[in-house]
Amino acid sequence: MLPGGVLARYGHLLNLPPHTQPVTLLEGGTPLIPAPRLARELAEGMSLWIKYEGLNPTGSFKDRGMTAAISEAAGRGARTVICASTGNTAASAAAYAARAGMKCIVLIPEGKVALGKLAGALAYGATVVQIEGSFDDALHLVVEVTRKYPIALVNSLNPYRIEGQKTAAFEICDDLGTAPDWLCLPVGNAGNITAYWAGFRQYHERQGTGLPRLLGVQAAGAAPLVLGHPVDRPETVATAIRIGRPARGEEALQAAAESGGRIIAVTDEEILRMQRLLAQTEGIWVEPASAAGLAGLAAEIAAGRLRPRGQRIVAVCTGHGLKDPDIVSRSFVQPLVLPPRLDVLEEVILKP
Question: Which of 87, 123, 236, 275 could bond to 221 as cystine, CB 3.0-4.6 Å?
Answer without folding.
Answer: 236
